[in-house]
């Protein structure tokens, strides 16, 4: 080795592979305003479409008069349900096996429902056209409260389902009932409750909220009549699924559909569903022969595209007097709005709600979920969560605190007593999941040590005494939460969307000079895939991450994949990337063996190439192998160096974490201050620690928003009360607390690189942590459970109800 020969550390550093805090390569364009979003795409002759929407939550549409609108200069077409019927698209299938009106067909079922689509030369003219459309409504009694939706006298919402006693998920009990889903052993669970020393029961609601990404939902469709081809630019988290669904519904051959999801400004589940805007812009393009763009505004986004949560969970725990849990019983009333458009894998009408046993060793459990229709917007998306995991984590984490309170035990101690132990993994849960790996005790103890949990409890006890003595009007809460996520949908035997199996894919093509391109079936919406996918490849095959271009989102070039949501990208596509890289490495090894004139088994991998075992000077680097693969491959070997992998994971991955929140609340004003927030996450092997930290910061900020104020609220008539950012809480840098992050590493045993997902974990663990802090603060005043969101007003109301303010 001479002085110029790079050291092992230098060679490794050059790769910027896994474990490196590589800077996000996509940020070069994002921070310079050079991103290419749907609204940046402008096609020649492009028209603009916008919706006439219903002011009422429940009404009969007696007539729609489009005459005046069509006379507005620049308005080219007004599409109604009658137009859509001519192409059999007045209703569309939902992801949950229901059907949904694309445009009002005789009735409207929620405020701001799409009634007609006006197509014009520009957006302003489309708006003039909207104002000229005359719709005659007859108001009907709205059903807003999910708790009375199944009353005998409740109004019939879905007249199209009259006489249908069975839905996509079995029998329907009432005209507003969608499904009942049960999991677990009811008899054994009931028996555990009969034998229990202690039981708790609480109705724990997770209110309706909305993902509200920075960029709203949008599409631009262009139908080429000559070629019979449809090109769709859209804000799609799963472009390939969109292509297949369009092919099936619109009967256009799949190879004649080109779906392109360019840069996306946040998704959080909002961009998984299929919305009337997508369908109408496609039909409008077919009708007019011109490209048609649809861009939602903020109010439309908040009030009509997919909401999240709205789960009302009656939760019971049975336990011994020493605090060992013996049974869990949960009934969920799920408000799905006007259509069941939940974005869950087909077999899971309540998503992965059956992860509700959480991180605890419940011997028996039973879960029942009833879905009901109401006059609210449809949806039920996994807002930064893996199919209802957030609801499940909130439910169990609140319930564990309530049990601790009843037992007079410390909430952290109760958790430590009931955790699944490290040696129990792989662990079979009472509700049917096989947890792949975990070390909960270590994580919890690390959290307790780092924050000085004992010291904080002591301080809290002193503050409570001071409050009782009247020396302060401030109360202190310690929120503990420990969550287990389930991410990486999924094994195709368990998970599909409309029959499309849930796997993912990667194609890597290396070029002769030693750089390459990786095309992946996922679609980043800000998570930094262009950065991290290249890091996996860099470590696997020794090509620097900077020399790998990552492409996603174009169905013409990327291999078929199921997209990005539910933190599935790393568990599924991340594995496909590693497997494709390993196929390349296997071919590279054959090439190296031939060139170095040894048997393949005599070679070993060394950072960025192969070396002959025992002969450190006999090496062949990957860059050279790339050249040889194209220009001088071994006799009989095909030239080229590329591989594709379709990965169907054997199981989900189960990230987990231990969080703590310290909060002070002024009882006279309800004003709270998050004094400290500590988040320990375990996502197995960490690909990019900086990106993970960013994901955790983002997820915690959303969790903070949801727990402390963010809500889609309706009045009794079905008016949306929080339809703009004036009323819908989006924390800015001013309100957002400072985050302290930490980690442990428990690799997934079945994932090729041991990685688990992380993007959603902080939302899953964060919401119960904030809520537990508020509830813990009030608990010494006699309160058991205060419903979210915990804004100032509700905190003040809680203090008033407890008699501590006049
Ligand atoms: O599916 P989605 O991309 O939303 O979530 P994810 O798989 O949890 O990944 C979010 C981001 O964190 C990606 O850029 C991942 O590569 C990165 N990540 C990581 O660096 N290490 C992990 N163990 C998990 C995710």
UniProtKB/TrEMBL annotation:
<comment type="subunit">
    <text>Dimer of heterotrimers. Each heterotrimer consists of a large, a medium and a small subunit.</text>
</comment>
<dbReference type="InterPro" id="IPR046867">
    <property type="entry name" value="AldOxase/xan_DH_MoCoBD2"/>
</dbReference>
<dbReference type="GO" id="GO:0005506">
    <property type="term" value="F:iron ion binding"/>
</dbReference>
<dbReference type="GO" id="GO:0043885">
    <property type="term" value="F:anaerobic carbon-monoxide dehydrogenase activity"/>
</dbReference>
<dbReference type="InterPro" id="IPR036856">
    <property type="entry name" value="Ald_Oxase/Xan_DH_a/b_sf"/>
</dbReference>
<keyword id="KW-0479">Metal-binding</keyword>
<dbReference type="InterPro" id="IPR012780">
    <property type="entry name" value="CO_Mo_DH_lsu"/>
</dbReference>
<dbReference type="InterPro" id="IPR000674">
    <property type="entry name" value="Ald_Oxase/Xan_DH_a/b"/>
</dbReference>
<dbReference type="Pfam" id="PF20256">
    <property type="entry name" value="MoCoBD_2"/>
</dbReference>
<protein>
    <recommendedName>
        <fullName>Carbon monoxide dehydrogenase large chain</fullName>
        <ecNumber>1.2.5.3</ecNumber>
    </recommendedName>
</protein>
<dbReference type="InterPro" id="IPR037165">
    <property type="entry name" value="AldOxase/xan_DH_Mopterin-bd_sf"/>
</dbReference>
<dbReference type="Pfam" id="PF02738">
    <property type="entry name" value="MoCoBD_1"/>
</dbReference>
<dbReference type="GO" id="GO:0008805">
    <property type="term" value="F:carbon-monoxide oxygenase activity"/>
</dbReference>
<comment type="function">
    <text>Catalyzes the oxidation of carbon monoxide to carbon dioxide.</text>
</comment>
<dbReference type="GO" id="GO:0005507">
    <property type="term" value="F:copper ion binding"/>
</dbReference>
<keyword id="KW-0560">Oxidoreductase</keyword>
<dbReference type="GO" id="GO:0030151">
    <property type="term" value="F:molybdenum ion binding"/>
</dbReference>
<keyword id="KW-0500">Molybdenum</keyword>
<dbReference type="InterPro" id="IPR008274">
    <property type="entry name" value="AldOxase/xan_DH_MoCoBD1"/>
</dbReference>
<keyword id="KW-0186">Copper</keyword>
<dbReference type="Pfam" id="PF01315">
    <property type="entry name" value="Ald_Xan_dh_C"/>
</dbReference>
<dbReference type="InterPro" id="IPR016208">
    <property type="entry name" value="Ald_Oxase/xanthine_DH-like"/>
</dbReference>
<feature type="domain" description="Aldehyde oxidase/xanthine dehydrogenase a/b hammerhead">
    <location>
        <begin position="32"/>
        <end position="141"/>
    </location>
</feature>
């Amino acid at each position: 080795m001479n002085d110029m020969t790079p050291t092992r550390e230098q060679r490794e550093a050059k790769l910027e592979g896994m474990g490196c805090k590589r800077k996000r390569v996509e940020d070069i364009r994002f921070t310079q305003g050079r991103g290419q979003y749907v609204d940046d795409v402008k096609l020649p002759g492009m028209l603009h479409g916008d919706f006439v929407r219903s002011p009422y939550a429940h009404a009969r549409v007696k007539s729609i008069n489009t005459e005046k609108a069509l006379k507005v200069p620049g308005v080219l077409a007004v599409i109604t349900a009658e137009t859509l019927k001519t192409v059999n698209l007045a209703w569309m299938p939902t992801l949950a096996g229901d059907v949904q009106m694309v445009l009002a067909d005789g009735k409207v079922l929620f405020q701001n429902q799409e009634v007609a689509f006006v197509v014009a030369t520009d957006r302003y003219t489309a708006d003039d056209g909207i104002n000229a459309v005359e719709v005659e409504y007859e108001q009907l009694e709205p059903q807003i409260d999910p708790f009375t939706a199944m009353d005998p006298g409740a109004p019939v919402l879905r007249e199209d389902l009259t006489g249908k006693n069975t839905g996509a998920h079995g029998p329907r009990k009432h005209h507003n009932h969608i499904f009942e889903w049960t999991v677990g052993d009811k008899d054994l669970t009931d028996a555990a409750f009969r034998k229990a020393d202690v039981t708790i029961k609480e109705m724990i609601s997770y209110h309706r909220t909305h993902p509200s990404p920075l960029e709203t939902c949008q599409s631009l469709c262009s139908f080429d009549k000559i070629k019979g081809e449809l090109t769709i630019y859209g804000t799609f988290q799963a472009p390939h699924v969109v292509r297949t669904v369009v092919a099936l519904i619109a009967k256009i051959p799949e190879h004649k559909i080109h779906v392109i999801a360019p840069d996306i400004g946040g998704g959080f589940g909002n961009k998984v569903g299929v919305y009337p805007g997508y369908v109408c812009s496609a039909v409008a393009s077919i009708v007019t022969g011109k490209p048609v763009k649809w861009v939602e505004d903020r109010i439309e986004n908040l009030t009509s595209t997919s909401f999240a949560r709205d789960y009302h969970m009656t939760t019971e725990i049975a336990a011994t007097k020493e605090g060992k849990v013996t049974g869990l019983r949960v009934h969920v009333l799920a408000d799905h709005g006007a259509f069941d458009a939940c974005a869950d894998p087909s077999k899971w009408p309540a998503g992965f709600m059956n992860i509700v046993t959480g991180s605890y060793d419940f011997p028996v459990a039973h879960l029942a979920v009833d879905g009901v229709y109401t006059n609210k917007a449809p949806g039920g998306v996994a807002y930064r969560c893996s199919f209802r995991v957030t609801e499940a984590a909130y439910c169990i984490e609140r319930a564990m605190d309530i049990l601790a309170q009843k037992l007079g035990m410390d909430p952290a101690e109760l958790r430590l007593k009931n955790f699944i132990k490290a040696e129990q993994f792989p662990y079979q849960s009472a509700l049917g999941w096989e947890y792949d790996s975990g070390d909960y005790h270590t994580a919890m103890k690390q959290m307790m040590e780092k924050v000085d949990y004992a010291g904080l409890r002591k301080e809290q006890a002193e503050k409570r005494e001071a409050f009782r003595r009247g020396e302060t009007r401030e109360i202190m809460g310690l929120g503990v939460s420990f969550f287990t996520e389930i991410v990486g949908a999924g094994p195709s035997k368990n998970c599909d969307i409309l029959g499309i199996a849930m796997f993912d894919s990667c194609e890597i093509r290396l070029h002769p000079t030693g750089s390459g391109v990786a095309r992946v079936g996922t679609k980043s919406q800000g998570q930094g895939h262009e950065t991290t996918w290249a890091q996996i490849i860099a470590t696997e095959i020794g090509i620097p991450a900077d020399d790998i271009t990552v492409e996603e989102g174009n169905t013409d070039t990327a291999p078929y994949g199921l997209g990005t949501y539910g933190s599935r990208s790393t568990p599924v596509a991340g594995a496909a990337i590693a497997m494709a890289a390993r196929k390349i490495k296997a071919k590279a090894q054959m090439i190296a063996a031939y060139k170095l004139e040894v048997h393949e088994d005599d070679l070993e991998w060394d950072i960025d190439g192969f070396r002959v075992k025992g002969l450190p000077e006999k090496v062949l680097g990957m860059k050279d192998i790339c050249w040889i693969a194209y220009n001088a491959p071994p006799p009989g070997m095909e030239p080229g160096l590329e591989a594709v992998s379709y990965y169907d994971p054997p199981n989900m991955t189960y990230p987990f974490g231990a969080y703590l929140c310290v909060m002070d609340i002024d009882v006279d004003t309800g004003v709270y201050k998050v004094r400290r927030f500590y988040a320990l996450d375990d996502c197995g092997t960490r690909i990019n620690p900086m990106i993970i930290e960013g994901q955790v910061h983002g997820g915690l900020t959303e969790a903070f928003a949801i727990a402390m104020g963010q809500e889609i609220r309706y009045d009794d008539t079905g008016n949306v009360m929080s339809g703009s950012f004036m009323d819908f809480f989006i924390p800015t840098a001013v309100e957002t607390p400072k985050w302290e992050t930490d980690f442990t590493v428990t690799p997934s045993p079945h994932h090729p690189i041991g990685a688990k997902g992380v993007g959603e974990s902080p939302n899953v663990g964060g919401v119960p942590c904030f809520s537990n802090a508020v509830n813990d603060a009030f608990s010494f005043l006699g309160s058991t459970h205060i419903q979210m969101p915990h804004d100032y007003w509700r905190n003040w109301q809680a203090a008033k109800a407890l008699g501590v303010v006049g």
